[in-house]
UniProtKB/TrEMBL annotation:
Native species: Marinobacter confluentis
Cofactor(s) the protein requires to work: a divalent metal cation; Mn(2+); Co(2+); Zn(2+)
Pathway(s) annotated for this protein in UniProt: Carbohydrate degradation
Enzyme class: isomerase
This protein's UniProt keywords: Carbohydrate metabolism, Cobalt, Isomerase, Manganese, Metal-binding, Zinc
Pfam families (UniProt xref): Ribul_P_3_epim (PF00834)
EC number: 5.1.3.1
Function description: Catalyzes the reversible epimerization of D-ribulose 5-phosphate to D-xylulose 5-phosphate.
Coiled coil: none
GO biological process: pentose catabolic process; pentose-phosphate shunt
Cofactor note: Binds 1 divalent metal cation per subunit.
Name of this chain's protein: Ribulose-phosphate 3-epimerase
Amino acid sequence: MNPYQIAPSILSADFARLGEEVDNVLAAGADVVHFDVMDNHYVPNLTIGPMVCEALRKHGVTAPIDVHLMVSPVDDLIRMFIDAGASNITFHPEATNHIDRSLQLIRDGGCNAGLVFNPATTLHYMDHVMDKLDMILLMSVNPGFGGQSFIPGTLDKLREARKRIDASGRNIRLEVDGGVKTSNIREIAEAGADMFVAGSAIFNTDDYKATIDQMRAELELARKSLGQ
Ligand SMILES: O=C(CO)[C@@H](O)[C@H](O)COP(=O)(O)O
């Protein structure tokens, strides 16, 4: 398994040419398509839903689609995204009354399940559901918009999350999202992340491949400094 995954956030893609943008970023070496779902209720913005996910599958996208639900409640959309071809589905623990049930719903649908932690959300939400987690996503910005700056306190939170994952002995991805760029991806990896969402840092450049290659070079330095 690729120890590090790069997941461009299509929030920063050109929506008028979405299929082409996704094809281009995958051809440039991205591992996963990060798909941000916002409802103008849980977060103050409105984006795309299961029909767009299904359209990407029909367009021919076979790469994993990593659906980040910034919605409340979550269960109806979980069911719809399972049917639409999602691979991973993550949600915010405070957006559902029944965290365990929502995680189980995702796993029963054959998708990888994960919890998302806002910058000020405690990691304790994961304590009693570790056995149902395939991934954990730490937001390094407040959710709702692309192009924000990485919140430095996320590095300590990543180290803490990494300790908990390692102590669990389970194979859980540690994803980070918000303000990830070529200039900081190495220290983010060194803090314990192994999956990197980047929107503006990739889609706002002219050469997606050059940017992703540069990110991989930085990740290789992190891998070496971690002795892996
Ligand atoms: O979920 C979100 C924002 O809520 C992110 O996925 C952003 O889309 C990341 O954008 P950049 O900070 O990388 O530009």
